[in-house]
Amino acid sequence: MMKDNYRIASYCHIKNNEISLNGALIFKGEGPFKTFIKMAYQHFAVDYPKFFKMDNLSKLAFMAGDVLLKHEKVSPEQEENIAIVFSNRASSLDTDRKHQESIQDVTAYYPSPAVFVYTLPNICIGEISIKYKLYSENSFFIFDAFNPDYLFEYSSSILDSGKAEKVLCGWVDFDEENYEAFIYLVSREGSFIHSTEEIKRLY
Amino acid sequence: MGDIKQELKSKIIEQLNLEDVTVDEIADNDPLFGDGLGLDSIDALELIVMLDKDYGIKLSDPKEGKKIFESIETMANYITANKTK
């Protein structure tokens, strides 16, 4: 099977006010998510003003993707054939709640367009795709918990079919103040084996 | 009129999440879209909601927005002439 040949080039974790890359802590922030992610934005000199218009889930996914893709020297200026397959448990619930609050009172019915556009979880994929000019396959799955078996099969299938050269894959979940991102890049080259056991170990 | 311009600048920065922009950096005649503040189509919708919510102005024709939202100056003039609250 071809899929045995795939590797994990890099992986990134964001959780508990910490960002790590390939298992090494590269940034530690403080405070609530809003404060922490702004500190990370400044620390990594992201310089992408649209970041501050994103919802929390997109900020989380974008930051993890940006850290990993920069490390892999993926250029925002050049079109790349990288698919994105993300998953989570809470879907876009954090933003859905904000939208619900804005339409709760019929006498003060002012839904915010800027909030509404983020009431789908896969919008976070779009935010990464816009910056890095990724026009390839993308999917977002909702699971009860991190599902390495499914992600392994799905990303292997995309690569087997030749629909993409690499797959940015993983888990990005945000609900109230609980958040976690674990994403990794599946490629033909890399230091880590692409297998469910290895994905579980890295996670 | 000066007060409403300052108020609009603060509201735009806060509601449109313009993180690195200060009130002093927005001139009254700066274009809000394109080369100016670089607002986008979703921002335009936010401004329409803001007119309704904060000033009681309902834009029946979204095309009107193009002229109204040209700059802080044009917005302030329109709001002063049409506000109902």
CATH topology term of chain A: Peroxisomal Thiolase, Chain A, domain 1
What count of helical segments of chain A does DSSP give?
7
What value does the Rg of chain B take, in angstroms?
12 Å
Order of helices and strands of chain A: EEEHHEHHHEHEEEH
Mean pLDDT of chain A: 95
Beta content of chain B:
under 5%
Number of domains of chain B: 1
Report the C-alpha radius of gyration of chain A, rounded.
Answer: 17 Å
List the helices and strands and how they pair.
The complex is a heterodimer of chains A (203) and B (85).
Chain A (H helix, E strand, L loop, with lengths): L6 E9 L2 E4 L2 E5 L4 H11 L12 H16 L10 E7 L4 H11 L9 H4 L6 H10 L5 E5 L5 H13 L5 E10 L2 E10 L4 E2 L2 H7 L1
Parallel strand pairs in A: 4-5, 4-6
Antiparallel strand pairs in A: 1-2, 1-7, 1-8, 2-3, 6-7
Helix pairs in contact in A: 1-2, 2-5, 6-7
Chain B lengths: L1 H14 L25 H15 L9 H4 L3 H11 L3
Helix pairs in contact in B: 1-4
Task: Characterize the structure shown.
The complex is a heterodimer of chains A (203) and B (85). Chain A is 35% helix and 26% strand. Chain A is an alpha+beta fold and 203 residues long. Chain A has one domain: Peroxisomal Thiolase, Chain A, domain 1 (3-Layer(aba) Sandwich), CATH 3.40.47.10. Chain A starts with 6 loop residues before the first strand and ends with a helix. Chain A contains 7 helices and 8 strands, in the order E-E-E-H-H-E-H-H-H-E-H-E-E-E-H. Chain A is globular, with a radius of gyration of 17 Å. In chain A, helix 2 runs parallel beside helix 5. The model of chain A has no long low-confidence stretch (mean pLDDT 95). Chain B is mainly α and 85 residues long. Chain B has a single domain, classed as Non-ribosomal Peptide Synthetase Peptidyl Carrier Protein, Chain A (Orthogonal Bundle). In chain B, helix 1 packs across helix 4. The relative contact order of chain B is 0.19. The mean pLDDT of chain B is 91. Chains A and B meet through loops of A and helix 2 of B. Chain A: This is 3-oxoacyl-ACP synthase. Chain B: It comes from Kriegella aquimaris. Chain B: This is Acyl carrier protein.
